[in-house]
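Help wanted!
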Amino acid sequence: MTPENSLRISIENLERTRCAQWPHAQDNCLTCAMCSGACPVAGVDDFDPRKIVRLISMGMTDAAADSRWPWICTMCGKCEQICPMGIEIPDIIRRLRAMRARDKVPGILQDGLANALRTGNNLGLPKEDFVFILEDVAAEIAEEPGFEEFTVPIDKEGAALLTTIHNKLVNTHTDDLKHWWKIFHAAGEDWTVASDNWEGTSWGYFTGDDEAMRVMAGRIVENMRRLKIKTLLWPE
Amino acid sequence: MNLNGKQVTILGAGITGLEAAKHLAVSGIEVVMLERTSQPGGQAAALSCKAVDGCVRCGACMVQERLKEIMRFPNIRIISDARVAQIARQYGFTITCESNKGVSTTHSDAVLVSTGFQAYDPSAKPYGYGYIPDVITTLEAEALLKRHGKIQRPSNNQEPKSIAFIQCVGSRDSRLNHPWCSKICCGSSLRMARLIQHRQPGTLATFFYIDVQTFGKNFQHYYDESKNTIQMIRAIPGDIFKTSDNQMLAAFFDPQTQKAGEAVFDLVILAVGLTPAKENVELARLLDFPLTPWGFWRSHRDGATGRAKGIFTAGAALGPMSIPECIDSAGQAAWDIVQFLGTT
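Answered by r_m:
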C-alpha cells in the first residue's frame, strides 16, 4: 500500500462499523461442525466455534462476550476457510472481544498493547537494544558462505520495501529472521526495517480495539512517509 | 387420440429417459433417445442392489428392468455417444446430433430433457480426495461393490476394517452456490454401510452427518436399526490426513463429549452432492429454455408457454431425486407430452 493510497482510503476516518460483520451470516449456520473439526483449539475449556455462532444467532451476545471462549481462539481463520456457508467466524470473535471492557481483557494482552502504544513494540524493547539484536543477527548471517557482504539496512530512506517485525523475532526466535533476510539478499531486494514503531503484531487488532489498531497502523504508514517507501511487507 | 406418426426426442437415456420412453412408445409415438455416454442406463445403472435380509427399496434394480423393457419396442431408437450440436425450431424441433456414427438429424414434435445430474467433484474439500487413494466418492464405492461384490481399499485391494461415511460433501454449501440438500445421500450411504456390514461382517462404520434426511415409508424403522450397527456422529470432519500406516485420520468435534475427536479409518466414502450437469448451460441455450439460478432445469409445469412449448423436463435434471422419484417424474412428463401431442 502506498502512502497516497492510504490517504485515499483514509485510515484516520475508518469507521468502527466498516469491518463489522454483525449481525448477519451467523444465521445461515447449519451446525455442520466443520469449523469445530478444523479448529486447532476446539475442546480447550469446551471451546466450540459452532456454539459461538449459535449463541450469536440466538442473540446471546452478552453471554458469549462474558465467556472465556473468544480469548481461546487464536484467530488462525481455518474455520472461516472451511465454513460451507461462508460465515466469517473470526470477525464474530473479534466483535465479541471488542465488547469486553478494556480492563477485563486478558492481562498479557493488556500489558503488551500498553507497551506497544507507549514504546512502539509489544515488548517495550528500547531502540538501541533492538538495533543491537538486528546487527547481531546480520553479523551471524555474514559468517555464512555466500553472505559475506550481508548487512541489515535500518531506516534506509527511499528503499523499495519496508518490512515490519514480529516481536518474537527479536526475542526468542531470532533465527527466524534469517530466512527472510537471506531471501531478500539473494533476490537483490532493496529493503529496510524501521528502528522505531517496527512492531507488526497488532494486539489492537487482536483484542478488538479499533482505536489502538488505528494508532499502530498509522505509525507504520508514518514510517513509510518518513522513509519515502512505497511498498510495505506486513506479514503478521 | 391418434398419436401415430408423432415423434419425441429424449435427451438422456438414464432412468428418467427410459421410463418416459416406455410410456411414450406404448402410445405409438416414435421415440429417439440421444445419450451422451456409450450406453443407456445412466448413473443409476452403476448402483448395486442393497438388499440385506430383504429388499430395502434402493431402486437399483429398476434401471435393469427398464433397459429390458424398452428392448421390445421397435419404435424406440437410441443413439449413444451423442452430442446435440444444433436445434432448429420450425414446426417442431429439428435436432442435429453428432455421434461416432457421424452427424444425424431428427425431427420431433416434442423434446424431453432428462439429462440427470453430475456428482460433485470433492477435490476442493479438505479430505485429500484425488491424492489419498482410499478417500473415494459414493459412486466410486458403488463401482467397487459392483465389480468385486465387496468393498476394497483402492490402495492395496484389501478389505477395510473401518469406514467413515461423510455426508453433505458439496451439498448445503452456499460458498459453492449449492444451498440444496441432495436428498438421496443419507439413505444411500446408510444402505451401503449396512450392505457392507452384511457382506463383510465386523466392518466398523461411522456416519458423520448434519441432519439425517428421511427416505421411504419405513425410514424410522430403518434408521433405528442402522443405529445399532453404525456409529452416528453429528458433525462433519474438518480435516483428513493420511497416517504413516496408510490410514486416514479424521479430525472432528464430537458434540457428545464436547471434545475434539480424532479417529482413524481404512476407507473414507464421501457422500458427494447431486449438482447440475455441466452441459445444461449449452443445452438450455440451444433450446432457449430457462434454467434455475442454481443451474438445474425448470419444470415444464411452471407455465411453459411461447417458445418453451413442446419442451418437457423430468428427473434429476430438475434437482436431486431418488430413483423412484425420477420414475414418478418421468411418468408425469410422459403424460404431459401425450396430452400436448394429442392437442397439437
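OP: Thanks! One thing I noticed: The interface with chain A takes residues 126, 168, 172-176, 210, 234-239, 250-253, 255, 258-260 of chain B (CB under 8 Å).
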